[in-house]
Amino acid sequence: MGLSLKKSLGQHFLRDENISRKIVDALKERKFSKLLEVGPGAGALTKYLMTWQDIEFKAVELDQEKIDHILASMPLMQGKMIHGDFLRIEKPFSGQFTIVGNFPYNISTQILFRIIDWRENVELMIGMFQKEVAQRAAAREGNKTYGVLSVLVQAFFHVEFLFEVPPSAFMPPPKVQSAVIRLIPRHSVLPYRSERDFFTLVKMAFNQRRKTLRNAVRPLFAPEVLSDSVFDKRAEQLSVEYFAQLTHQMNRNNDNK
């Protein structure tokens, strides 16, 4: 296609049509009216998405060369491209919308946190990530990959690990395995005391994950609370729901530092 690859943007073009169709089919399983594609690149998914009826579709791309290519090869995309960084743009729609993308692996964790920031509006997300990141997002307590990312994503979304994608599906092939996950908003809000308390507790607990909770989060709780046997456990042994419950026992004078 005569397009250059920018390593700084983590670009790998998806070239396997079967994978593109599987992602599109996964999108079709739920109804929505507004769709944002993140990082369309050479347009492997775009060419399927832009023709959907009754869908308001936009795509955000940082690389001007890729925008020019899409506009030249896909006239239907006129007026639907946003030139910008997904991590910095304003919300592209009002109300609820769906997000899809073959996400740059160098910012994949940041993308998930951006989606958390937009959770009031994101009704569905289907995305391709480095397999390791996808596994961390979907991991449950007791799993060695369970950590801050797992807890914070699952606090707001149900995470489904859909399928793996081999390096051969891309041009050039990345040095890592890939996987596609789906995020669907939780129906009920976790019973934490405050979102700030919850984030503080989770990050501190996993910051020293080899230690018991008692030693890892000692500044956040009174000594009599820390005597509970739950603090004998390590962070990866606690469910998302249990972290939320613990926030109600945190000190109220620590200012959530």
Characterize the structure shown:
Helix content is 31%, strand content 19%. The protein is an alpha/beta fold and 257 residues long. It has 2 domains: 7-185, Rossmann fold (3-Layer(aba) Sandwich), CATH 3.40.50; 195-249, rRNA adenine dimethylase, C-terminal domain (Helicase, Ruva Protein, domain 3).
Radius of gyration: 20 Å
CATH class identity of the largest domain: Alpha Beta
> How many distinct domains?
2
Secondary-structure-derived class: alpha/beta
CATH architecture of the largest domain: 3-Layer(aba) Sandwich
Q: Secondary-structure map with pairings?
A:
Layout: E1 13-14, H1 17-28, E2 34-38, H2 46-49, E3 56-61, H3 64-73, E4 81-83, E5 97-102, H4 108-117, E6 122-130, H5 131-138, H6 148-154, E7 157-165, E8 170-171, E9 178-185, H7 195-207, H8 213-216, H9 223-226, H10 240-246
Parallel strand pairs: 2-3, 2-5, 3-4, 5-6
Antiparallel strand pairs: 1-8, 6-9, 7-9
